[in-house]
Every structure is written in structure tokens, then in C-alpha cells.
């Protein structure tokens, strides 16, 4: 039988207790969550060393998440209104490490501000890309558009339109699994790292997918989505704080 720390932590709609002071704050607003089921074996090789696909009933998921980043701030300083506020669309996978920590792995992050893209790539080794983007809302319809500028591939794009539905009063196990993620796994300086985050419980709404024309998933090296998403959700958003990675014996952050 595997040791206890090999088993994933329970899925929780609420964040674990915060450890340490926040070094990065931001808000995620007007989010559209689109998810497709995928075989874990098809994505296992795309995850950082020390992690494996996180599954629910033997299935894992590819997420396409479009939203507005709002007022990114550092070390307790007020969020930046222009450079820290921009549309973003990410392609992500779901991971769990040897300590049982569930997280996300970003395969791409399209953003419309070049300086945050450059900082994200250089300082955090995250796969940020610079894109021409827009988020527009009219009544209960939200449209997200993206066309990649740099570093490509040329022609990578997305256009998503959703109609916001009723609030989700009692999210399902799958809806919690896809949205209640309290950290990310990433490779930094040649080692796998875990970066925790915390925010209030997601306010979720049902959403109807009106339009989806995208190739960001395949541009991220993943299989093309098969059919319609199995889950489409909307959230007005949450304030978010990131804390420093946890330190293990010896003072070295581990995956």
C-alpha cells in the first residue's frame, strides 16, 4: 500500500489555512471555465517531474479558462491599475504531487500586456504569451477573444461566448474538482515547485456556451478537444493571494 502522503488531499471548496504573508495579490474577474475530459495517459508526459495527473473517477480534464486579471500587486503594495489589469486565457491541466497537494499545471497563458508576459516568462518560467485580447459583456453574455502575437505559434487564437445562467447553489463534486485548486505546479530553475494560493469560495453560475472557436488547446501540445465541453461555468470572480512555497526539511522547497 502506498504511504499516506501519496494519497491526494481531499477536494475542498475552501482554501487551506494560509501560511505566511502574501507576496502577490490580484483579482480574477468575469471567468469562463470550459472543460473537456481526457485520458490521464494522454497528458501525463506534459506534467512536471514529481507530479501525476489528478483524476476523478479515473478521468482528468483539460481546462480553457478566460477571464480578466485585475490589479496585480506585490508585497502588500496596491494593485497596479494598468499594467496589472488585462485579459487572460489559459490552458491548464490538473496535477497532484507526492505530498498529495492538488494543483494546476499551465500549458499556456495568453495575456494582453507585454511587460507582465515578459516578467512571467523570465521570473517564474511560466508559459506566458503576448496576445491581442478583449473581454466584452452585454447583459448576460460575455465574449472573450484572443489572437497570439509573440512568441507564437502564429495563428493561435480563441473566441468564446457564453450566456450566464443561474447561480450554482450546490456545486457537484466535479465542479469543485475543476475549480477549487489551491496551488500550481511548475518547473523553476530545473526543479519542480509548488506555489500555493488562497481566495474565497468560488461564486459559480451555470453557463451556456454560445460559441467556441479556438486552437489554443492544440497549440499547447494537447489533443484536440473531442466534442462539446463536459462543463461550462461562469464566475464573477474572487480576490486572490499567493504565498511563498512551503519549505520541507532542509529548507528546500520540494514538488
From TrEMBL:
Pfam families: DUF2071. It comes from the Bacteria. InterPro entries: ADC_dom_sf, DUF2071. Gene3D superfamilies: Acetoacetate decarboxylase-like (2.40.400.10). This is DUF2071 domain-containing protein. It comes from Streptomyces chilikensis.
Amino acid at each position: 500500500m502506498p504511504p499516506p502522503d501519496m494519497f491526494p488531499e481531499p477536494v475542498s471548496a475552501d482554501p487551506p489555512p494560509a501560511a505566511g504573508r502574501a507576496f502577490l495579490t490580484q483579482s480574477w474577474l468575469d471567468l469562463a471555465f470550459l472543460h473537456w475530459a481526457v485520458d490521464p495517459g494522454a497528458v501525463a508526459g506534459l506534467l512536471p517531474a514529481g507530479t501525476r495527473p489528478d483524476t476523478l473517477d479515473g478521468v482528468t480534464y483539460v481546462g480553457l479558462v478566460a477571464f480578466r486579471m485585475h490589479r496585480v500587486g506585490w508585497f502588500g503594495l496596491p494593485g497596479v491599475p494598468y499594467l496589472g489589469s488585462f485579459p487572460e486565457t489559459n490552458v491548464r491541466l490538473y496535477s497532484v504531487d507526492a505530498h498529495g497537494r492538488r494543483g494546476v499545471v499551465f500549458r499556456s497563458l495568453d495575456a494582453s500586456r507585454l511587460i507582465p508576459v515578459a516578467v512571467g516568462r523570465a521570473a517564474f518560467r511560466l508559459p506566458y504569451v503576448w496576445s491581442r485580447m478583449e473581454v466584452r459583456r452585454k447583459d448576460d453574455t460575455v465574449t472573450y477573444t484572443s489572437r497570439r502575437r509573440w512568441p507564437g505559434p502564429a495563428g493561435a487564437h480563441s473566441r468564446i461566448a457564453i450566456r450566464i445562467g443561474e447561480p450554482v447553489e450546490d456545486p457537484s463534486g466535479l465542479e469543485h474538482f475543476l475549480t477549487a485548486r489551491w496551488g500550481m505546479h511548475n518547473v523553476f530553475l530545473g526543479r519542480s515547485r509548488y506555489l500555493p494560493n488562497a481566495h474565497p469560495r468560488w461564486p459559480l453560475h451555470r453557463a451556456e456556451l454560445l460559441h467556441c472557436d479556438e486552437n489554443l488547446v492544440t497549440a499547447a501540445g494537447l489533443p484536440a478537444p473531442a466534442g462539446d465541453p463536459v462543463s461550462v461555468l461562469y464566475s464573477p470572480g474572487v480576490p486572490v493571494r499567493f504565498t511563498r512555497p512551503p519549505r520541507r526539511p532542509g529548507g528546500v522547497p520540494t514538488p
